Amino acid sequence: MPLTRRKFAQSALAAGAIAALPSVFSACTESSKAAGTVRSAAVARPKLSPVQDSFPISFPKNFSWGAATAAYQIEGAWNQDGKGESIWDRFVRVPGKIKNGDTGDDACDSYHRWREDIALLRAMNINSYRFSISWPRIQPNASGSPNAAGVDYYSRLVDALLELHIRPIATLYHWDLPQHLEDAGGWPNRDTAGRFADYTEICARAFGDRVSDWVLFNEPLAFTYRGYLEGAHAPGRTSLPDFLHATHVVNLAQGAGFQALKQTLSSARVGTAFSMSPCEPATNSEEDKLAAERAHALINLWFLEPAMKGRYPQGFAFLPATLMGIRAGDFEKMRAPLDFIGINLYYRTIASAIGIVERVSSPQDWLFPVKMSGGDEGPKTDAGWEVWPQAMYDMIMSVTREYHRPQIEITESGCAYNDGPGPDGAIRDARRIEYHRQYLGAVGRAISEGADVRGYHAWSLMDNFEWSEGFSQRFGMAYVDFKTQKRTMKESGRWYGKVAAENGIGGD
After folding, report:
1. pLDDT tens figures, 433-460
2. Which DSSP state fits 50?
3. Each residue's pLDDT tens digit, 116-127
4. Is residue 252 part of a domain?
């Protein structure tokens, strides 16, 4: 979820240590090399601000109006009812890693207050709730029989959602790897893919009679990069080999998890929530255009191409597969013909080539001469991210073109604005309303031009623990007083509820 891969695009490390990636990322078989070149989502950079979408906008019948959350960010109860330790339970205790020393030990206490959260969903007329299942709450030691208390918790949640005709979308992995698996090597360890498939099967058997829509991973690029290369997120490693191996193991796990779900629930609808961002060249130079192509392949395709086409993105220099731990038969194992593609999108990426002087200072930049940053022409959120609705339209249309009009779910989009209660207790967050109005307008425009978008899930239902930023950034449509855990609907939540009820956005 936010404050994660967003920094990836702006990180100096992305142009430094990541510089070695393209040469390793091309470890493909001859057959995959012959498969052709992927069409790019790199787009010409607009000279002006994006054109505002026309309102009113109506959405298709049965469009899903949703909100999204993640277990570690809202549940709390970190060591209750048999739950095992996760890598985040361990990481937040490392001094200096989390702003203000915050932890998710209590978070929003949703483990005990889930009925209040469902009441928020109902008040907002939401008909689709994307939540995540905590792996260590289901398998405390990452193996063996499931923890009955954990299964019961999610069963109660799912039953309550269905009672209100709210579609449950269960995310199987939103970053809280059991610490037992990290101790055994974590995501760089090839065995973790098989353990993920076992866990997936347990969840499918426990909840598959009621849950039909599943998300395998949330933002695989974010948790592999920030956790194994940059070290800013759990488990806090800073190793290029670990990062490379982790990306490949996650791709194997994506394939294994997909198969486990389909074998257990043949009718399951399965996808992954990918962190995506259209990559624009900083200038119209050929060098910057090539840089944008390379950035697109890394940011948007590195976990999508293996699933949909059984290969890594094309266009990189070839180096031995051993650098990523690729073995014979792995490309077929990675295949997971997803039923829908989840798009988590907040902003665009500006890509530029690295100049000669910079290449001299960093030899690895000769391998991947790309700098990536966020845009700076649009207004900024309190987290410093550019608001650029055109990015949503561009990314949806890119995926629509490249993958032959697949089903798409907007699995996340949102903004950090830290507006608090006024003297009368109301939270007037007009900027958040305008953000979602414009981004939904871009979704509506893409649908009108042929994209098959099935739903939009606002990040987030409520303010929560924002990873390394702790509680310092608020993305919710409901305000949470973290001292009392009281929830208060913001004006944006009321506005979103009206949009959901009307299945469209008025012209006012």
Report:
1. 999 999 999 999 999 999 999 999 999 9
2. P
3. 999 999 999 999
4. yes
Asked about 230 being catalytic, the answer comes back as no
412 is annotated as an active-site residue: yes
DSSP 364: G
CATH of the domain at 362: 3.20.20.80
Please calculate the CA angle 180-185-186 and round it to the nearest 5 degrees: 70
Determine the Cα–Cα distance for residues 114 and 92; give it in Å rounded to an integer. 23
**Of 201, 219, 280, 293, catalytic:** 219
Active-site residue, selected from the candidate residues 75, 280, 305, 412: 412
pTM for this predicted structure: 0.92
Do 475 and 2 meet the contact criterion of CB atoms below 8 Å apart?
Answer: yes
Lowest mean pLDDT among 345-354, 357-366, 452-461, 482-491: 357-366
Residue 38 φ then ψ, to 5°: -70, 140
Q: Is residue 507 included in any domain, yes or no?
A: no
CA Rg value for the chain = 21
Assess contact for 132 and 170: CB atoms under 8 A.
yes
CA distance 282 to 379: 18
Residue in 425, 432, 437 with CA at minimum distance from that of residue 487: 425
What are the Cα distances from residue 84, in Å, to 133, 140, 242?
Answer: 13, 4, 24
- Provide the β-strand partners of residue 57: 505
Report d(CA 471, CA 99) in Å as an integer.
Answer: 8
- Flag whether 508 is in a domain: no
Task: Indicate whether 102 belongs to any domain.
Answer: yes
* pLDDT (0 to 100) of residue 364: 42
What distance in Å separates the CA atoms of residue 346 and residue 413, rounded to the nearest whole number?
5
Which helix (H) or strand (E) is 455 found in, with range? Answer: strand 452-459
Burial class (CB in 10 A: 0-12, 13-18, 19+), 238: middle
Backbone angles phi, psi at 472, to 5 degrees: -80, -15
Rounded to an integer, what distance in angstroms lies between the CA atom of residue 389 and that of residue 373?
17
Q: What's the confidence (pLDDT) of residue 319?
A: 46
Q: Report pLDDT digits (tens) over 182-238.
A: 999 999 999 999 999 999 999 999 999 999 999 999 999 999 999 999 999 999 999
Q: How many domains is the chain built from?
A: 1
What mean pLDDT comes out for the span 397-420?
98
Q: b vs e for 251-288, b when ≥16 Cβ sit within 10 Å of the residue's Cβ?
A: bbbbbbbbbbbbeebeebbbbbbbbbbbbbbbeeeebb
Nearest-angstrom CA–CA distance, 140 and 79:
10
Residue 473 belongs to domain spanning:
5-502
